[in-house]
Design goal:
This protein is α/β, with parallel strands linked by helices. Helix content is 46%, strand content 23%. The structure holds ligand C2E and magnesium ion (MG) (2 copies).
Length: 606
């Protein structure tokens, strides 16, 4: 082999030509010279020939296009590209070798002019291994990227994905002049399913939920799992708000159909909050916050529905945060108080018990209803100290009434699930009553069915039953509060040896006019009679209700008609053993209505 082309161009061969030839031959990477007019390789060094598997003579016989190619480019265009890229970026090509194998090569090119000839010098590097490693790295990177941006359980995009893509989606909506909807989904009572059926079942349920939501929306919409039982759906290209409510309704429907998980039928529903770009927010943070607020509103409205964000909701959320903050100081700064409402024998009107009801007198907002802060107290872990406060106060008040000469009746104290399951309630009641010299039988614990059964802890499902058994052993009475609106398996009434049932106010309200309420109340009274359980009707506000309950054989009554909750100092009158004078109450009630005072709560202003 030799520099025949050089020799033909410049003869005789000079000393420096021979030196150049030697350098060319021994160059450690592939080097070739191409005649750009004939598209023929005119020279190739040893490395280049070894890589191709051809001899120089063979190479000379071949056209450039038979040796090198690039996808979608014909040989002439490829040479044009090489000329164009000279001394700048390398050009990547496929090199076809003699044995038929193909290699990825990169060529760095330089134009050479020898006389009339237009030549192209190419330094050719084999990059097959590098490309392979790069492809592997890219694939790995893509896998990692997918992992980082997707939820492992459901395979849905996750919060990170949303953060990476939503700003772009918003930008697109802005350009197109369309709306974009953010739907914030939170499963209703998922924690209950997770706790009672175990995490594995919970996970399977979440997967089914993810599939159902995904199949409810269009391909271009995004369904994201934010974590836990929270999902976000992004609806793109929204032209009319009607589209959004239709989708939200479809999701509600799709999820409320029963799901079979591990052979068991589970029912879950979802609360959805909606925020629209650009009306309810311009950036991701604002849209997520507002859809979350709307979702809470959907929960407050009885779950299994959707709510569209409104600025009023934002005010309510701020109010909630304000409550949370000030509730922490309420305990220490003596803003909490306990009022009492009598429960009377329906025949004699004599007081048989006093129910202790928590009151929070906020320094600037006035009285705040327990419903407004009980949930927050539970979530923030304040329920146990607040419950202890009510118990202690009830025992102290009872002792004071007795010292003042009153005939004590049982004091009913409301106990939440957290208090029943987490604190050693029987032990603290035992200690407290012993300390104050009060018989435990003068205390009644009121439990709601929902609180006891819905919040059952999977790790200790019998916690409530055990706690009730210890209370009974101590002699404390047990009443089921708001009876009829919660759990429906009634066997526990017998097992727990409950003393009293309190028929929920919602059945008493329309008792006189609504036949189904009448049927429910009659059935509860009949059942309780057979089980030797006392029945108290709650929330009696009218004479006709009272009369009806008496006719139905309800034993006990509680409500504004008889007496409103009042501070301890006003309750000694109920311990005189005399019946409550209902005509007197009626006059007071009329007076209260006229003045708008009494056990009325001022609406908490944000
Ligand atoms: P509850 O135990 O069913 O208490 C009865 C509620 O109905 C009280 O509301 C009472 O003021 C109200 N009420 C009584 N008679 C009438 C009536 O004729 N008409 C109407 N419309 N309402 C009447 P309150 O004091 O707002 O308490 C609400 C709920 O908060 C209670 O329902 C109870 O579940 C809970 N709660 C109150 N105090 C405590 C407490 O110390 N600890 C716990 N865990 N929960 C408490
Ligand atoms: Mg109660
Ligand atoms: Mg009640």
């Amino acid at each position: 082999m030799g520099f025949w082309w050089l020799r033909r161009l410049r003869s005789p061969l000079t000393r420096s030509d021979a030196a150049h030839q030697a350098i060319f031959e021994q160059w450690p990477t592939g080097a070739m010279v191409l005649n750009t007019a004939t598209l023929q390789i005119v020279a190739a060094n040893a490395v280049a020939l070894r890589s191709l598997g051809y001899t120089l003579e063979e190479v000379r016989e071949l056209r450039f296009g038979e040796l090198f190619s690039a996808e979608g480019v014909d040989p002439r265009a490829l040479v044009g590209k090489l000329l164009d890229a000279t001394s700048r970026l390398p050009v990547e090509m496929r090199q076809r070798c003699k044995d038929g194998s193909q290699r990825n090569v990169e060529a760095n090119c330089h134009p050479l002019t020898l006389g009339e000839q237009q030549l192209l010098g190419m330094a050719v590097h084999d990059v097959t291994v590098r490309r392979k490693v790069e492809t592997q790295l890219l694939e790995r990177h893509q896998q990692l990227d997918h992992l980082a941006h997707h939820d492992q359980l459901t395979g849905l995009p996750n919060r990170l994905y949303l953060a990476a893509h939503l700003p772009g989606d918003l930008e697109e909506a802005k350009k197109a002049g369309s709306m974009l909807a953010v739907l914030f989904l939170d499963l209703d009572r998922f924690k209950h399913i997770n706790d009672s059926r175990g995490h594995e079942t919970g996970d399977k349920l979440l997967k089914t939920v993810a599939q159902r939501v995904r199949s409810t929306v269009r391909t271009q919409d995004v369904v994201v799992r934010m974590g836990g039982d929270e999902f976000v759906v992004i609806l793109k290209g929204v032209q009319q708000t009607g589209q959004v409510s239709e989708t939200a309704e479809r999701i509600n429907q799709a999820l409320s159909a029963p799901m079979v998980v591990d052979g068991r039928t589970l029912v879950t529903t979802v609360s959805i909050g909606v925020a629209l770009y650009p009306h309810d927010g311009l950036d991701m943070g604002e849209l997520l916050r507002h859809s979350d607020t709307a979702m809470y509103q959907a929960k407050d409205r009885g779950r299994n529905n959707f709510q569209v964000f409104s600025p009023v909701m934002d005010r309510r959320l701020k109010e909630r945060i304000a409550i949370e903050t000030s509730l922490r100081t309420a305990l220490q700064s003596q803003q909490l108080d306990v009022h009492y409402q009598p429960i009377v024998n329906i025949e004699s009107n004599c007081v048989v018990a006093l129910e202790a009801l928590l009151r929070w007198k906020h320094p600037s907002h006035g009285y705040v209803r327990p419903e407004r802060f009980m949930g927050i107290a539970e979530e923030t872990g304040l329920m146990v100290p607040i419950g202890d406060f009510v118990l202690q106060r009830a025992v102290e008040d009872a002792v004071r009434w007795r010292q003042a000469g009153g005939t004590l009746v049982p004091i009913a104290v409301n106990v939440s699930a957290v208090q029943l399951q987490r604190s050693n309630l029987a032990e603290s009641i035992s200690r407290l009553t012993r300390q104050h010299g009060l018989e435990p039988s003068l205390l009644q614990v009121e439990l709601t069915e929902g609180a006891v059964f819905e919040r059952r802890d999977a790790r200790n499902p019998d916690a409530s039953q055990d706690a009730v058994a210890s209370l009974r052993e101590l002699g404390v009475r047990i009443a089921i509060d708001d009876f009829g609106v919660g759990y429906s398996s009634l066997s526990y009434l017998k097992r727990w040896r409950v003393d009293a049932l309190k028929i929920d106010r919602s059945f008493v309200r329309d008792l006189v006019t609504d036949l189904s309420d009448l049927a429910i109340v009659s059935a509860i009274i009949a059942m309780a009679r057979h089980l030797h359980i006392e029945v108290v009707a709650e929330g009696i506000e009218g004479w006709q209700q009272l009369e009806k309950l008496r006719q139905l054989g309800c034993g006990f009554a509680q409500g504004y008609l008889i007496a409103r909750p009042a501070p301890a100092q006003d309750c000694a009158q109920y311990l005189s053993g005399k019946p409550v004078d209902l005509t007197q109450t009626l006059r007071t009630l009329e007076g209260l209505e006229a003045t708008g005072s009494g056990d009325q709560f001022r609406v908490l202003q944000a």
